[in-house]
Amino acid sequence: MSSILTNNSAMVALQTLKSINGDLAKTQSMISTGKSVASAKDNASVWAISKVMEADVKGFKGISDSLSLGESTVAVARQATETVTDLLTEIKGKVVAAQEENVDRSKIQTDIDALTDQIKSVVGAAQFNGLNLVKGTDDMNILSSLDRNSDGSVTANNITVGRQDMTTDKGTFGTGTSLNANATASAAAATSTGNAENVTIATDADMSDNAVSITVAGTTLSFAAGELSGDQDAAATQITGALNALGLEGITAAVNGTNANQIDITSTRGFEDVSLTATGATASAATIAERGESVDFSTSAAVNEGDGYKVTVGGASYDYIAGKGETMEDVAKGLKTAIDGAGLTGVTTNVSQDQTTGQWSLKVDNDGSGSASLAFAAVGNAGGQASGGLFGLDSINVETNNGADSALANIETMISNSIDAAASFGSAEGRIETQSDFISKLSDALKSGIGSMVDADMEEASARLQALQVQQQLGVQSLSIANQSPQSILSLFR
What we know:
Elements: H1 8-33, H2 44-97, H3 105-125, E1 127-128, E2 131-132, E3 139-148, E4 154-162, E5 183-185, E6 189-191, E7 195-200, E8 212-216, E9 219-223, H4 232-245, E10 251-255, E11 262-267, E12 274-279, E13 282-283, E14 287-288, E15 293-297, E16 308-313, E17 316-321, H5 328-341, E18 347-353, E19 360-366, E20 373-381, H6 401-454, H7 458-483, H8 485-491
Antiparallel strand pairs: 1-2, 3-4, 5-15, 6-20, 7-11, 7-13, 8-9, 8-12, 10-11, 12-14, 15-19, 16-17, 16-20, 18-19
Helix pairs in contact: 1-7, 2-3, 2-6, 5-6
């Protein structure tokens, strides 16, 4: 039924056109923003998830920047330690050359001093953005990841890179807890007197029927039956002369002044126990102990950063303060370096480990050319400031025989420290690079995931826009037609 008051066709056309215009506006918004979910009203849950993920992507961008900065800093430190290793290797070559006495050691020392200055320059310059990883012992934390937990909380993870102190600093002896129990000196003095054991020839008026064999330091002296004559005292004298005639380094034999049938065998070898066995006679011990005195370090005590140990040799004290992660081996080698650097006449040092117990020892030998007896003691305190990894480099002096000999062992320790530092930085740099690559890929994956949730399908949106535009045109025409219906009613009254 047609009505002059109500145009139902127009109303329908208007409603249809309104719906089309709404869809058209939404489609145009998708095309202009490129997103199917541009605001919370489009899809609240998807929008919320996307915003959380977008925040994570922003965070990962910051992490990527942090990793890039950290990688550059570590790369500088690695390059510095590698350069230091090369320079130390050059110094080792100079030290080896100085072992030959027929060289100009003063010129070699000048070269060593120049290389030492260059090492200090490298260590001082090895900084990136003001941070130097080859000075000090503090750790550096590099932001590496953000972990989102199931409850929505976020925690930061770091890659920890330890500094590797490549300075020549002496360190500072602490005043904290006593560590005296961890380092025990074998004697109160280091003397030049050799240690002795004896061999006793059994009482026999006629030694011609006896065979006697004595082995000293792996060399055997044998007498078959008939080669010895006289009684046991005469045999002892004969054997003593034969032992001395062997010319064993640091080994002397003498007939005991009280017991003429006893041969006293003395060893002045500083760092070597001399084996002793006898057949047809009685040896008092299986070995003649080394002359050098020792500081024996604990096999159970931990070494903490700042733990310092001090050894007194003669009237002076020499100390070493452990750095982070060091062991009793490092302490023993550090003390050796400190003593060697003093250039004490007649004093040599050695570091060794007992293969059975694992105990590390610092040994100090005195050949008597400087002093017949040197006071000897060891103490320790916690709470100090660590010595540098190249401690003792400044004191290398190859102008004397003792100095050249000591420098050879000490430079090996420094090279080892430098290699360990370079390896540590190289490992850290590799971890940072791997994490940086992962963060980059993770960010790309998150961006792709966000896009799949909120990005508009532009092909679909374009096709839909064209369809809606056609529908809009048709809707306008329908409304126009519907608005012509009242004209038909009016024509009835003409």
